[in-house]
Amino acid sequence: MATNMTASRPRTILFHSESSDPRWPDAIGRALPDFEVRRTLDGIPPEDVVAAIVWKHPPGMLEPLSNLRLIQVLGAGVDHVLADTRLPKGVPIARLVDPGLTARMTEYVLLHTLALHRRLDMSARAQKDRRWDFIPPAPPERCCVGILGLGQLGLSCASALSGVGFKVIGWSRSRKEGLRFETYAGPGGLSAFRRQCDVLVLLLPLTAQTCGLVDARFLEDVQDGATLINVARGALVEDADLIAALDGGRLRHAVLDVFRQEPLPADHPFWIHPRITVTPHNSSATNPDTALDRITENIRLAMAGLRPLDLVDPGAGY
């Protein structure tokens, strides 16, 4: 990673996102007036680019940027960045910690957990058949919500769910200490964890170890009538195995906001399955109003030769 830029050279920030708030480039430019913000590399020397803010960039796009000091991801997930085998060597990668994104994700998980707990999926099916099925309400303390992934998003969801009375347990790759709820860790703790859950919430990063985690073997080990919420990555779940578990009654319902292919193809069976709720990856999103301060702080730190916040460990995959 070269750092021999002269003071006279312009400093450029590359912004690339397939789908995001159109206010981003102007907002970054106003917050960092000493930098030029560009959406493409057309017409600019690659060596002028000192920072890249990206979401689902084309593989190899960043390779020629010899003076790049920071790759800032425009979201919490970084699997799409790490999948680029032609990233510049030695450049720090930072994921985005956005309080607005965290709040919206927490709302979504709380909303759908409450809906599953109150069995609104069953009421909807009864309404379709014009059946007056009285479903007695149960207190949330009788419902165990298991959160797979105890990063910032998982912990925020756990706090909100505990706050309305749900029993919360969590699982993560490595042991988490000092939390106010029961936790499990590693492959050895996964079976005991999932057997307890009425609602399973997927908030894991997508890595080589988590890809396809929720498969037939995983689902055979959950209790009958459990439910699933996936707000992480579609590839965590084996689609055919999920449908089989729903059809066989092992799972009662699944709420899916993320998919292996997005947009979800019109002929995908998820669309018409009576026990699946599909939402178009809108559980949360980054917002300049809440995320800009963190991004600009990271760029300033990188330009000063200091350690940016929320760095990614490429070896771990998150």
From TrEMBL:
Record organism: Aquabacter spiritensis
SUPFAM superfamilies, A to Z: Formate/glycerate dehydrogenase catalytic domain-like (SSF52283), NAD(P)-binding Rossmann-fold domains (SSF51735)
Spans traversing the lipid bilayer: none
PROSITE patterns: D_2_HYDROXYACID_DH_1 (PS00065)
Protein name according to UniProt: Glyoxylate/hydroxypyruvate reductase A
Domain D-isomer specific 2-hydroxyacid dehydrogenase NAD-binding residues, every copy: 112-282
GO MF term list: NAD binding; oxidoreductase activity, acting on the CH-OH group of donors, NAD or NADP as acceptor
InterPro entries reported for this sequence: D-isomer_DH_CS1 (IPR029752), D-isomer_DH_NAD-bd (IPR006140), NAD(P)-bd_dom_sf (IPR036291)
Any Pfam family hit: 2-Hacid_dh_C
UniProt-listed PANTHER family: 2-HACID_DH_C DOMAIN-CONTAINING PROTEIN, D-ISOMER SPECIFIC 2-HYDROXYACID DEHYDROGENASE NAD-BINDING DOMAIN-CONTAINING PROTEIN
Keywords of this entry: NAD, Oxidoreductase, Pyruvate
